[in-house]
Amino acid sequence: MEKQNSSAILLLKQATTLNIHTGNLVNWSRLKKKCPSSTSEEEAPSTVECTVTQATEAITPEEREELKVSVKLFLSGSDPSSIRTAVDLACSTLGLSQLDSVMIAPPPLPEGVSLTLEHLQPHWEELENLLQSHKIAAIGTSDLDKPLLEQLYKWAQVKPSSNQVNLASCCVMPPDLTAFAKEYDIQLLTHNDSKELLTETSFQESVSEGVKDAVVADWSLEWVLRYSIIVKSRGIIKSKGYLVQAKRIGS
């Protein structure tokens, strides 16, 4: 165990990118964490992949038509290129060429700053590019009120197909939002996610707990991606899980 911890510390010391995959949480009872267990300083990779054995199930071509793959992406930083990175990693992890839908939760803003169309535009343009290159079939938003959803709809080349509303902040769907969504065929969905699914502090603490004595202060959380795979004909969840990416600050 001590040797494995030393190897993990060396990996983190040399790496610039850390990818974590929970595997299929439906099979949580069978999960077994797997990170590279031994390495030398000469062969330490720049990207460390930490995943779960016996739970990562790629989708076969034969079953693809029967499944709907939905993603919600929680952004931590302002770099829109992280959206493409997340989508590419999700596709490669799940064995897909395209995701059925991707919904973004915009990155948290400083205290007292309200979300505006200007904040959303670079992220939405990246989603549009991914849709036009057939990496995504539909794109959506999260927690936009009626004025901001309307601004996005009028500005965007590819219109949002859905918008999630947190019912913890409003017990009833706002009537103006409902009317606008109905008029422009935008699906309104509900959720109970926190504004930040995983804070950078919580992420660093988790890594520190998993790898004793690791230096974690220079690791910055980039994004958290949650995916769900549903069997269309039966409406049951076949698989769900999380992908997380962090980068070393300054890399």
UniProtKB/TrEMBL annotation:
Residues 54-190 form the NADP-dependent oxidoreductase domain. The keyword Disulfide bond does not apply. The keyword Acetylation applies. Gene3D superfamilies: NADP-dependent oxidoreductase domain. InterPro entries: Gclm, NAD(P)_OxRdtase_dom_sf, NADP_OxRdtase_dom. Pfam families: Aldo_ket_red. One of its GO terms (cellular component) is glutamate-cysteine ligase complex. Keywords: Acetylation, Glutathione biosynthesis, Ligase. GO terms for biological process: glutathione biosynthetic process; response to oxidative stress. Belongs to the aldo/keto reductase family. Glutamate--cysteine ligase light chain subfamily. Heterodimer of a catalytic heavy chain and a regulatory light chain. This is Glutamate--cysteine ligase regulatory subunit. It comes from Acipenser ruthenus (Sterlet sturgeon).
